[in-house]
Design goal:
The complex is a heterodimer.
Chain A: H1 4-13, H2 21-29, H3 34-41, E1 51-58, E2 67-68, H4 73-78, E3 89-91, E4 97-99, H5 103-110, E5 114-121, H6 129-138, H7 149-157, E6 166-168, E7 185-186, H8 202-212, H9 244-268, H10 279-293, E8 299-305, H11 313-338, E9 344-349, E10 370-375, E11 382-384, E12 402-403, H12 404-415, H13 421-424
Parallel strand pairs in A: 1-8, 1-9, 5-11, 5-12, 6-7, 6-8
Antiparallel strand pairs in A: 2-4, 3-4, 5-10, 9-10
Helix pairs in contact in A: 1-2, 2-8, 9-10, 10-11
Chain B: H1 11-20, H2 27-35, H3 38-46, H4 63-85, H5 89-124, H6 128-140, H7 145-148, H8 151-163, H9 169-177, H10 180-185, H11 199-209, H12 217-226, E1 230-232, E2 239-241, E3 251-253, E4 256-258, H13 262-269, H14 275-287, H15 294-306, H16 311-319, H17 337-347, H18 355-365, H19 387-402, H20 422-437, H21 446-449, H22 452-455, H23 458-469, H24 476-489, H25 496-507
The chains are: A alpha/beta, B mainly alpha.
Amino acid sequence: MKTRREFLRSTLLGASATWTVPMFVERTFADLHMGARDLATQPVTGKDGTILVVLQLAGGNDGLNTLIPFADDAYHNARPRLAKKEKEIITLGDHVGLNGSMPFLGSLFKEGNLGVVQGVGYPNPNRSHFVSTSIWETADLENRSSTGWIGRYFDNACSGSDPTVGISLNKTQPESFGAMKNPGVCLSSPELYRWIHGGGEKAQAEEFFASLNSPEDDDDSPVDGASIDMPAGGRTGGIEGESNLAFLERVAMDARVSSAKILELAAKYKTKVAYEGTPIARSLNMVSRLIAGGMPTRVYYVSHGGFDTHNQQVNSHDRLLGQLDRALKSFFADLKAQGNAERVVLMTFSEFGRRVAENASAGTDHGRASCLFVAGEGVKGGLYGKYPSLTDLDQGDLKHTVDFRGVYASVLEGWLKTPSKPVLRGDFAKLGLIG
Amino acid sequence: MLQAAPEEWTIFEAAHLLRRAGFGGSPDEIRLFHSMGRRKAVESLLAADEELDAFPLPGWATSEEAAAEARERVAQARELRQLTRDLSPEEADRKRREFRQKQQRTERQHSVEGQGWWFNRMLRTHAPLREKMVLFWHDHFSTSFQKVKQPVLLMKQNELFRKYAMGSFKDLTHEVVKDPAMMLYLDTQNSRKGKPNENFAREVMELFTLGEGNYTEQDIKEAARAFTGYQINRLDGTVTHNKRQWDNGEKAIFSKKDRYDGDGVVDLIFEQKSAATYLPGKLWEYFVAENPPQEGVDALGKSFRAANFRIEPLLREIFLSKAFYAESVMHNQIKSPIQYLVQMLKELELRQAPAAYILSAQQQLGQVLFMPPNVAGWDWGKAWINTNTLLSRYNVAGFITKGSQDDTPLANNDDGAMMDMEMDRKQMRVSNAMQRAAQRWEGPDFERIAPRELREDPEKLVDALIFRFFQMPLSGKERETFVEYARSKKGAIFTNKETGELCHLMLSTPRYQLD
């Protein structure tokens, strides 16, 4: 396993005059532009640190049928076809209970390792999936930030570290990873996470590949300020202000540095715990393998999609929550078996909740406040925040009682041990979820 | 009006136009295109001479066969109901499951065929701009097999996009509002009086016509009432407006009051200011560059409204503008996966590639035809690229250039781990079966692309290949790297295999990802 620094050092020192891999690599890295050289020589993040897993429920999870206010008549009245009966609920208190398809989370709650945050949202919510997701991922209510909240954590607390400080098990890079310096890496299948070249000419081909996939000091280095037409992305895990070519070169280098390492680690650990074949279970399985292998990764990001339940909601929603519950059950059992359970906290989020009343299609439309889960041995279990009133509504929607940035502040400060103010660009009351 | 570019142009500008307004071409095609001159070349794209039905649809996608199939399904369902009446509940359940599975198999097969059909059309068409616009509309009015589940409806929608490719955006929007695939995708078909489903009204304004922030929540709620009562006839795929399910009360939308229906809302929308600028902004991003300049969008907005929302004049203005050929614009767009694949095949002068492999490549690169991730379509630009998809691009290029003689996991990958959705996985299995047939892929004709005599002169060979793949001069160091490789192979061992390797190396570069 190599950090970016070690990778560079070994290839620089190992250079020889023959046509071998190191020669080309050496030739190229000697030419690295300043920005990339800085990035490449920073120390790596410690691999025994705490780990945060962020799990996105994409599509707007219906909080009312996840954390169910079973004792509230208004709930049953507003949802004649969707409301859960008391026997379909795992009671958590006098007022609320979990959807019955989540027995594992129910038991986690009873063991004191599940924090359930009620009424999470933000002021003047946006009901567009895309804008609202963006707001959650950037932690910027104006939706103008080109960096994500996790990316800013990397920039502030893990500056210049190994590209694998953040790993997203997704086909696309989450907006929350958008960073000024290091946006982490993205992979979906470790078996394919490498450059595959021709048979016999392997070494030589690799040499060219290395040479051609390293940043050069020509006209495309990152630029400060106005010399680029328009501020480029960051919204997609890119570095702000970077040209497309410089961006591609950097991604290519991050891919090279991380692929060998990830391949090696992912192949090493074989889990004894059974996981389902669902995408979310497979993603969590991979996260567990990488943790077991000793990746220096601080934040993993996984997604569980399908929560946009406008139509015939009951079956699909229960099924999705059940898949989530079983995936988490395997994941936490696996972490325990490895002896890493104490190092990991998992947090869910979704862009918004649904309206209180069901619609004509036995589904629910885009709403506002919802609930989220924070799970792990490091979590102080219990209910947090106040369940929003089902009768005092804002245009048919629940009013939020907890600002989601307070949850972020809690995990940043309590779990990742980093000041949250520079990351969240403001002070937000912690909820006491950790510890 | 945007400032126009002069008539004379360079071959690199011609190549740029052919890539952006189409899918690029071989060196010969580019030379021919350049010789037409800028204005004629643009006109040749806008008025391409190819019938709409030049590529016959797969049988199941034609109206006649689709109708017959639908009737057959209804008959079978009736039969099944009768049959199961006399069976035990378990047996009946099993029969029903079998019936469903059989149907799903057919649908998967059809969706794979539909994906192949369109991809091939993009590759072989003589109207590349039209196909590029169909892809634009598919992204703009996004719908997916995953939810619609009836491939024939998406094929029908695809034909609709082709018919209106460069026509009136307003007319197309009227059509899309009553398009069965779109209605199924956004759950419009059972939105009715009293309890409207807001989804459709929201996406029409947010994503299709006006853009976020150019309407109020009240507009959405009221428009949702107007969109009630539209129903699909599952037998023939026609859409009717059932007045009994329609909320015929008065609605206040954009401060106007009337008893609007869906068409009424669309007409109202096109009176809004941002209806004239929203789409030109998106077209600019699609064809020119991200973050369109405000003056540019405003200028195009004016032309767009004056042209009564017709697309063709707008495209002419863009492709003849100075801005389109700016240095900062050329070679600075990240290829979408579809663009990447089609263009690479054209540059390698391939008329086809193993269909199942192409589908699998789309999955790995993050853009599967007829399967956009959500109603907002795909994320473009830098979002196409991450460590994962970049390595996949390099490996796809390896397979296409060198064929299946290498043991590439990509070519026989059975692991569904990269799949997001159930449907993806099932489709993957279908494609895996087909993929085995693709194992004999022999790659491009290198005797033609890199003739033997050229291999005797490494510099000339490299320059020829650089023009083929990059259509721009490369910096000294980049070029030198390739020359060095070609030089080391010169002589007895410079076979097609080494040529393929050289091409793979050229395509395994950050630079090749840019158009």
